[in-house]
Structures are given as C-alpha cells and as structure tokens.
Amino acid sequence: MTTGTDVNGPGQAAVAVRDLRVVRGGRTVLDSVTFEVARGSVTGLLGPSGCGKSTLMRSIVGVQVVAGGTVEVLGHPAGAKALRRSVGYVTQAPSVYLDLTVRENLRYFAAVLGAPASDVHRVVEQVGLTGHVDAVTGRLSGGEEARVSLAAALLGSPEVLVLDEPTIGLDPVLRRDLWGLFARLAEAGSTLLVSSHAMDEATRCGRLLLMRDGRILADDTPGGLLERTGAPDVEGAFLALVDRAERSAA
Amino acid sequence: MKLSVTLATARRVLSQLRHDHRTLAMLIVVPCLLLALLAWVFDGTSTFDRVGAPLLGIFPFVIMFLVTSVATLRERTSGTLERLLTLPIGKLDLLMGYALAFGLVAVVQAGAATALAVTLLGLDVAGPVWLLLVVAVLDALLGMALGLLVSAFAATEFQAVQFMPAFVLPQFLLCGLLVPRDRMAGVLRAVSDVLPLSYAVDAMGDLTVQEGVDAATWGDLSVVGLSIVLALGLGAATLRRRTP
What we know:
In chain A, 33% of the residues lie in helices and 26% in strands. Chain A contains seven helices and ten strands. Chain A is globular and about 60 Å long. The interface between A and B is medium-sized, with 33 and 25 residues.
C-alpha cells in the first residue's frame, strides 16, 4: 500500500523501489514494497524490530540478493559500480576495525574511496569525535563506535546516505546533534534514508515510511500522517494504521 | 585493480597487527622457538639436518593459515567486509593487500627462523640460503592464501580454528616428511601429489642436500607459486558483493 504524493516526480527520485520482494532463509522478508525517496530529503524508515528495515536498506545499497522487483538509486540499479562512490552505508552494528584508531579507520576508508586526507578531519568533526581521533576504536563506548562507523560513511560526501539505526543507544543531546547534522546534509543536497525503531524520532524527518511485517504501511509526511489518522503522535498513527489494516483484512 | 587501494589495505592490515603486540611477537618468536626445540630434541642425530629445512617452511605455513583465516573471518563477521564491498575496491585489491601485508610479515618471520636455523642451530644446508628463505616465504604465502580461501566456509571462530587440523594436518602427514613420498601406498602418494605442501617440502629437501638448484626444484617452486595464485583466485570468487 502506497499513499502520499511524489513531490519531485519519478525522474527526480534518488531512490526508486518497485514491487521489491526479498526472501531470506525461506521466509518472505519484504513483499511488494514500492516507494520513492526524493533527492535532498531526510526520510525516516520506521517500524518495529524485525519488520524488514535492515533488509530493505541492504537492498538499496545493493548487498542483498532480491527475489523480485527493482531498486534504482540515482538512476542506476542498486549496487551498480557507478554507485560505489555515491552511496554511503552504515550498518546497524558498527562496521569498522575495532583494533585500529579512529584516524586509522577513517584514513583507510578514505583511501579506498579516493577521498582527500582532509576529509578525515571533516567527518570526525561532523560526528563530534574530535577528541577521540587517536583512540583505539574498540575502547570507545558503543555510541562512539557507532559514530566512527557513521563518520566512515560520510567520507567522500556521498549523494545518498543509507543509515541503519544510527542513533541507537545515544544520549538525547547526541541524538539531537546527529539529526541536526542529517538536516544540514540534506540541505546541502544529500539524500538520507534513516531507519529507527524509536517512533519519537519521526518528527525529525521530512518524510516517513512506516513498515510492518515486510510491507510499507504508510508513506507520508509526519504532519500528513497525523492528520490522516487523527492520532496525537507517530506511534499512535502507527497503531491506528495497523488496526485499520487488520479491520479491512477481517 | 588499483595499486593505491592495495597498498592502503596492506597498510591497514599491518596497522592492525601493530596494535596487537602479542600476536606480532608470537608471529616472529614462535617459529624460532619451535625450531630451537626441534634442534634440541634431535641433538646429536642427523635428523635435524633432514627435517629442519622442511619445517622451516611448514611452521610459517601453519601459522599464516591460522592467522589469515581468523583475520578474514573477523572481516566477514564484523561487517567491515560488507562495507568494503559497497565501496570502490576490487576483490583482488583486498586480497592482494592482505597478501602483501602478510607476505611482509612472512619475510620477517621466515628470515628470523632461517637466520636462527643456519647460525645458532647449525642447520646444514647445501643449497643457497637465500632460496631457503624464498621457499619459507612462499610456504607462508601458501598458508595465507589457503587460510583466506577456507575462511569463506567458516561461519564461526570455532569452525575456522578447526580448519587448521582439517586442512593443514593431512598435508603435513602426506608431505613426505614423516614417510618419504615414494614409499607411501599408491593412493596416499596420489593424494600427496595434489597437495601443494608436498612440493614445498620437496623443494626444501632438495635445497638441503643439493648444492646447485636443478629444474626439479624450480618445478616444485612453480607448483607452490601456482597454488598460491589459484587459492587467491578461488578466495576472490568466495567474496560476494551481494549475499542472501
């Protein structure tokens, strides 16, 4: 089920997913998922744990074997060689070398991307880890490790950022700072798809995709979603939509 | 392939080792200690002169196999491999980076062991000592390449560590060190003919007793070299950008 309007039209979308179906271990994890993400926006991908958010993000990055449908990113099929410099990806578990310092990690990923060495300094500042550049990553806190992983994805200023639960376990001040960073990146032209299972983060997004059981429950702006469901908050809207879907199925 | 990415990968792997002082120390010291122990065990017999050179190659082979399979498994399970494969890095860039880094370690490791063996431990080598070192480094690289390959089939550290006895010990038993290969049962001989370590040990054996280097030795070394390339190629094939 897809609702809402495409602000920019189909040709402008940074990410276009059509009828995506993914089967993992014999189980259908994503089924007929269709949506678009407009360029220069922050889109929140919200839903409970296990609803298929990570699989959807893996499909967009092009590391997931898909059973059907198409995923296009910046006009290329997901995972295309041309996209390897333009899509930044942060997995849910920090994917950096825990036995290297923050600087060594970022220098390596910058070298792989062919990004200038000065980029390391920029991304460390963006995620607020300036005081930790020479710390061994594995000795940092979980939240700091997550930010090293995020910093690595910011190297080379990719046009599209796919961030899987980047704010999990962070203190509220840091969460606010990171969402501020996401908004600034979008203003500068980047497209961000950010997943979260914390519904209260929805208000930070320009657009929301609500997911449940491998399907898109709603694709709308936060305001539009509340208006449509009459719920006081996004969690309420989520529940209202689930109830409505179950009633129509019954 | 991009040289800068390969070099950056090698540098990264070496940095990881540099932070792990104990592993680094063990990589260099353990083969030396084992050789010294061997020389002591066979003190007063001619056995050390016979098995010393082959073992000079086998110890780095075993150690590199273990270190590499665990390192690669860590790369797979930590998600860094998945991240890397979304970036503009060729699979061969990654593998050659590993090969370069561990190759350098192998040079130091085999160099220390060889130096110790031919000086303090009095290992008698008829052939050129530099070639002994070359074979030892090739053995280490072979262990590394096989470690990279089999780590693709290990889902956990427990499995990875057990690939050592599963893949390495049969090669050790059949390589001709315990029983000369021409005295083995036909089936065993045939199996030993397809195991790369047999050729490494043959080459080491030749170097021990022959002054010059003959075509057979170069042939053995080519087989080891080709096995390394083959294992790296197969290893590259196990790296998938897209996974289920």
